[in-house]
Amino acid sequence: MYIEDEYTELKSILTKDVKKEIVAFANSGGGKIFIGIDDNGNVIGLENIKNDIETLSSMIKDGINSDLTLYTNIKQEKINDKDIILLEIYNAPNKPYYLSDKGLKSNGVYLRIGNTSVPTTDEIIKKMIIDSQNINFEEIFSNKQDLHFGYFGEFLKNNNIEINKNILKNFNMINLDDKYTNLGLLLSDECPYSIKCAIFEGKNDIKFKDRKEFSGCVIKQVNEVTDYLNIYNRISSEIIGLKRVDTRDYPEYALRESILNAVIHRDYNFTGSVLISLYDNHIEITSLGGLIKGLNIEDLYSGVSQTRNKNLANIFYRLKYVESFGTGIKRIIQCYENYNMKPELINTQNTFKVKMYNVNYKEENIISINLTQEEKIIDYLAKNNKINRKVIETILDVSSTRAKQVISNMIKKKIIIAKGKGKNTYYILK
Questions:
Q1: The domain at 369-429 falls in which architecture?
Q2: Which of 13, 188, 316, 353 has the most CB atoms less than 10 A away?
Q3: Mean pLDDT of 381-402
Q4: Is pTM beyond 0.90 here?
Q5: C-alpha span between 408 and 429 (Å, rounded)
């Protein structure tokens, strides 16, 4: 019985549409096309197989670019006394392959997804070109040259490094022609890539509690996203013996390392955002690009790693954001070694996702109620001990003026008291 799948296509007769299937297999790792077998796996046979073979050869030679003749093999076979064609397409090196009459655009370039050949996007076409030519995204001349490094410069200054042309060259942010590279773009205030966070109520993505997008220098994004998620990374306290033990919903190291991995290892040929989704019982951090060719999930669990953006990784390493190369995923897993629910690593052709579970989540303790603004603050303080105005603005989704009003009312009611002064003011339960 013949069945269509990721590597197999069935055609009852030879038509010009077979070209898109050939292109899809060539761009996706290879496959087989049986001509003379219908979609249900029934052998129909071909009436004039010699003529069909000649037509198919012509289609491959003249209807597809680049030349695929060396990466295809046409066989005549006989099944149940019926003639069929078996066309084998090998994983070809000069991607992307495309239909000659459509050109190098989305309706001319196909990929094999499951048992279907689908047109691709301009982003993926660009990625295939870069991959086939072994071009490093970081080192390519940036299309934007009017770049500014306000955040990055201030960050270096705080680390006793004065930003100048030589520093930018040492970091490979400027090339030999004194032009900014894409690495420079990533660390500039004009960086076009972003991280989108969504906080959901419950265990699915039906009802939003809050959402926010972070942009600018990728170091700025990492810092701001980490601070933002820490607002929702609550603390659960337990008395063990004579000691109070505080446990965050998500191990702080694992959360921060997952964010860093998403920024450092993503494929910047895709313009989409890193997506972070926080639910009551788990968090998902999804970056674009999938794993580097040759790596699989089992390799990551074994501690094997390969960096897609080596220069960016080196900057984060030199600035002490990461402790060593290639240990991030392994250490994320180690953070959960004392818990039943382990992190999940999910890889697709163009995405990579880390899914981590809330270690404090208990199904029976989740009660759906509508809290007032004051109750939300009390609930937060019960779990986190102290709160400041910025956090109040976030959890209540209100303006600075409204947050001050709520704080003032709660102080008058003697629910909370203020500690500290000026920017360092925070509030605790009375």
A1: Orthogonal Bundle (1.10)
A2: 188
A3: 85
A4: no
A5: 13
